[in-house]
Specification:
By secondary structure, the chain is of the alpha/beta class. Helices cover about 35% and strands about 20% of the residues. It is built from ten helices and 13 strands. It is globular, with a radius of gyration of 18 Å. The N and C termini lie far apart (about 40 Å).
């Protein structure tokens, strides 16, 4: 099992080999700048959280005029569930709970070799979710980047907390034209779609269509799921702006609710969310997929970016 700092070191190697700019925020910088989701999730671990920012600029004199895409990856390097601890059988595969961040890193590392004519920033939201005397507790309220407060009803719904920080930062500071995140986010998506199709949520019809086309071209299948407005009130908290899971009575639809939670942090920027909890790891060798981490999302996103048809 690796750590947030190990992911930083891998990112530094990829950045050096692929001509990327890189910035890393350690836990002190994260606390100083208000990344409350990353701090909250990571505070129970002896291995503190990190946020890696990788920037790809094409070899083009006017690259600043090209479209700017931000890719955000969930990077929970190990997920015990925290105080809301998982049963042992559900914990053994959690070293691949950083699959979203791993896929984003792999995409950034391939862009220059493919001469992709799009500016791309990758954000890796890295933390280890552990129980300890210092861990966040169910009922705690944290403040995400940008000021939105969240009541943590379940510490095992941690991926959306680190993603929310990165999404809010991307929208407010990086001025993207499009944002896409990848995350092994919910068990619910695997129940709905199985192990070969990722759940796709989007606020923009053209972006959704482009990603569906890229999925078909790359062989990494997606199925679009709805952001059901009727379910949004289930995330209302009596003590904060949002709750990180549905308050009672819950409507079910865990993958949809997670998408609705993330949507609160993207403003008006066209955004898509790929829930790869079912596809990001495999228990068996299956055609082109080997047992373990699958790298799902790398081919899909490279196909989309290389096409230049982003929306």
């Amino acid at each position: 099992t690796k750590s947030p700092q190990w992911m930083v070191e891998q990112s530094r190697r990829v950045a050096r080999e692929s001509g990327l700019e890189m910035r890393t925020r350690d836990h002190r910088a994260l606390a100083r700048e208000g990344f409350g989701g990353l701090i909250g999730v990571g505070q129970g671990s002896a291995r503190p959280p990190r946020l890696v920012e990788l920037t790809y600029r094409p070899d083009h004199r006017r690259s600043s005029a090209l479209p700017h895409v931000v890719l955000v990856g969930k990077g929970i390097t190990f997920d015990t569930g925290g105080i809301s601890i998982k049963p042992p059988a559900a914990m053994t595969a959690m070293k691949t709970d950083m699959a979203g961040a791993g896929a984003v890193l792999a995409v950034l590392g391939a862009l220059r070799a493919l001469d992709v004519q799009v500016r791309v920033t990758g954000l890796l939201a890295l933390a280890e979710n552990m129980p300890s005397g210092g861990a966040q507790r169910p009922g705690d309220v944290l403040t995400q980047y940008g000021g939105t407060t969240v009541e943590v009803l379940n510490t095992d719904a941690e991926g959306r907390l680190v993603l929310a920080d990165a999404l809010a930062y991307a929208v407010s500071r990086l001025r993207p034209d499009t944002v896409v995140d990848l995350a092994t986010l919910t068990g619910a998506v695997g129940i709905a779609l199985g192990r070969r199709d990722a759940g796709l949520f989007a606020t923009d019809e053209r972006l959704a269509a482009r990603l569906v086309a890229a999925a078909a071209a790359s062989g990494e299948r997606v199925w679009r799921l709805p952001l059901v407005e009727d379910y949004r009130p289930a995330l209302d908290s009596s003590v904060a702006d949002l709750a990180n899971i549905a308050v009672r009575p819950a409507p079910g639809a865990g993958a949809v609710l997670a998408g609705l939670f993330l949507r609160e942090f993207v403003g008006q920027v066209p955004w898509a969310h790929l829930d790869i909890a079912g596809t990001g790891r495999s228990e068996v060798d299956d055609h082109e997929i080997s047992r373990g981490g699958t790298g799902f999302g790398v081919r899909l996103l490279l196909s989309w970016l290389e096409s230049g048809r982003l929306r």
